[in-house]
Amino acid sequence: MASTQKHNKPAKVRPAGFPTRDQVMEFITESDTPAGKREIAKAFGLKGQEKIALKALLKDMADEGLIDLGPARAFHKMGGVPKVTVLRIVDVDDTTLIATPERWEAEGQPAPRLRVVERGKRGGLTIGDRILARTEEAGRGWVAHPMKKLAKASEELLGVVEQMADGKLWLRPVDKRIRKDTLISDVGTAKPGDLVLAEPHGRPPRISARVTDILGDPFAPRSFSLIAIHKHGIPHVFPDRAEDEAVAASALPLHEDKREDLRHLPIVAIDPVDARDHDDAVWATPDEDEGNVGGYKAIVAIADVSYYVRPGSALDKEARKRGNSVYFPDQVVPMLPHELSSDMCSLRAGQDRAAMACHLTINANGKVTAWRFTRAIIRVTAVLAYEDAQAAMDGTAPEGAPTASRKQAEDLLEAALKPLWACWALLRKAREARDPLALDLPERRVVLDEYGKIVSVAVRERLDAHMLIEDYMIAANVAAAKALEAKKAPVMYRVHETPGRDKLVALKEYLATFDIDFALGQVIRPATFNALIRKVGESEEKEQIMTQILRSQTQAYYAPQNMGHFGLALGSYAHFTSPIRRYADLLVHRALVGAYGLELPAPKDKAVPDRSSLSQDDYENMGLVGEMISGHERRAMEAERETIDRYVAAFLSAHVGEVVKARITGVQNFGFFATVDGLGGDGLVPVSTMGAEHFFYDEAGKALQGVDSGDRYTVGQRLELRLAEADPINGSLRFELPDNPAPRGGPMKRDRTRPGVVHRGRPKNIRHIGAKRGKHKR
After folding, report:
1. Three-state DSSP class for residue 208
2. How does strand 732-736 pair with strand 680-686?
3. Predicted confidence band at 709 (pLDDT cuts at 50, 70, 90)?
4. How far apart are CA 156 and CA 215, in angstroms?
5. Beta carbons within 8 Å of 415's beta carbon, 6+ residues apart
């Protein structure tokens, strides 16, 4: 059957029974597998000369723009995708994951963006994941149904270019969990020492890397956070549309006549000295109501972010994609553009700001007996550093020249600070009665100079001022959750579940090594663990036992179903106090706006959406959004922790060879991990460097014990170690026992003939003791 040609081309003679263009197009479109020439020929029973004619027909169709050649030499409709193909997830649009074909070779045609439709429990996929998916057209676009999550073999590599003695270039990974370097096959314009992104090429075991982006000097200021941003795929650049919308939103009128005016009150913000934004401020005064003798009234004022970031807007989509701000020592990757996060939504002193005010009534026992929420306008009297507010209350004069913050704190002592502290004394009384989990573990703070160089790494001091703000925020968070429950409105709860039995069994076995009993049959409450900590007292083991208790806890998450907050000993808890930096708080604000009729007049110029309360999409996707932002929170925590580890390693790199005071943080059969006192950063002491003695590994006691000497290395033990290596690129440290001779075979070092290869496996001088056999050893 002849087929009509365009442009008056003479018709080509086709064999009898030969498929038409429409038939070929229909087969390609409906095929469940990539359709190449072989599959088409087989489907239509073509042989010999018919296959040659098919090849010519497909060429004609491709020339005419009807089809194009796919990555596996399969054909598909021009601008379309194969029925089954490999996709990479590249974006999130509200709650919908967006994927594009991993390979796209349609010249002149942009790669299509497919909406990923997940079945069952969602939230298992994220940006950067590769999937094998079935695709189909739906409406004006394409959707993808995941069939299988694929290995991240083709994921971009992040590392530093190194040149070996033989002249070959290798990519040294920044992830300390990756123990192997990759040969670079195409370095482009990168030079040795550059921090780069690269694509893997080839198949195992012959994988090489092709450099795609040069990120610069890995030791330059901001590079350590840049490493974390790229490694974890943290969105850090706002699209122009979101930036433009932030400018438009910041110009919205405050509607002073429709907000509660609190500008006459001496409301203060108390924050870290290096805070980049200020989203909460507090005020308190004795309650003059005769029915609340000895009680107080308090206001927790929070930036009214929901007024500026509205459902369905470009700002909302970007905020949801991020989930939270990410805080590095040298920069912040904000959830919202700086136009809002550092300016209009930041509660600056002396400037009128839109706020969501939580009014609290607190009785003499510290119980919050009433609350109400309003949209308000406030003018923060002063932004004080924790240290300055504390010094003013204590009547002390910290070292150094007086700062503006310190002078303001002294001036506001009677009007603002003393009432805040008096009200907090009541809240603290209620907190002690509740007896929440009290794990006072140190937090590291990296101090940089104006050039981004490390000045010091120290443990943050825990002041009463910190606990004061914490208790006011907890009270407001509880009030927000209960206020929404009273209206039967949706709540994005902050959930912290009771520890699981497996972790409690592990904790029981661990405590048994200290001759501490822990009954599994009892009802587990935070007070149960607090009693353990009090029993330990100020012994040397206190910190390691607190660390083990922390490891026995479940990880907190966001969800619309209330499971309570175990750690805080609270039945209902939601995050309300940080909407600049947490998306969950923004949703709680929107829910309050809708539940309590706090909507304000719609913008006249339509630059942003009309409503600031929860949208239908917010209602329907609360569970999925909770899963997403919980994952984003874990991503941020890991990125922040790794970056601090890199700064610590950089700080310690000038002290390699010195003996430092350390504490053992973990024990495995191949050695033990230790951290430098006051600095942090885990480093390994390999058992292979601990001399010729054989060691038993006590799994239950988390210890290594020498067979002959009886020397025992256990979690929490303090000792002196020699710093053998400090690698700022991946944040890893390595220690040695200071009195040990050089380890057999010399110290571990990079193998220049096989770069990046580290010999692993159980060393010859180690024996294993299981949980049952080792639990009675001390």
Report:
1. strand
2. parallel
3. confident
4. 13
5. 266
The CA distance from 717 to 703, in Å, is 10
Q: Is 89 helix (H, G, I), strand (E, B) or coil?
A: strand
- Residues listed for the chain: 778
Amino acid letter, 334: P
Pairwise CA distance, residues 131 & 147, whole Å: 7
CB 150 within 8 A of CB 132: yes
| pLDDT digits 0-9 by tens, 199-222 | 887 766 778 888 988 888 888 767
Among residues 368, 498, 490, 461, which one has the least CA distance to residue 423?
368
Count Cβ atoms within 10 A of the Cβ of residue 614 and give its class: 0-12 exposed, 13-18 middle, 19 or more buried: buried
Angle of the 223-232 helix axis to the 622-652 helix axis, nearest 10: 140
Direct distance between the N- and C-terminal alpha carbons of the chain, in angstroms, rounded to an integer: 89
Q: Tell which phi-psi region holds residue 452, choosing left (phi > 0), alpha (psi between -120 and 50) or beta.
A: left
| Exposure string over 626-660, b if 16+ CB within 10 A, otherwise e | bbbbbbbbebbeebbebbbbbbbbbbbeeeeeeeb
The SS3 call for residue 599 is coil
pLDDT digits (tens, 9 = 90+) for 135-161: 888 877 888 988 888 765 446 788 899
Token pair in block for residue 79: 């601008």
pLDDT given at position 70: 56
Q: Which two structure tokens, joined as six digits, stand for 458? A: 């120290």
Q: Is the pTM of this model over 0.70?
A: yes
Alpha carbons within 13 A on the beta-carbon side of 357: 24
Q: Phi-psi category of 745—alpha, beta or left, where left has phi over 0 and alpha has psi -120 to 50?
A: left
Instruction: Give the containing element (helix H, strand E) for 60.
Output: helix 49-63
